[in-house]
Amino acid sequence: MKKLLTLSIAIIAVSALSASAADAKANYESNCAKCHGADGKGQTKMGQKLGVKDYTDAKVQADLKDDAAIKAIKEGLKDKDGKTLMKPAEGMSDDDIKALVAYMRTFKK
Question: Domain span at residue 11?
Answer without folding.
Answer: 2-105
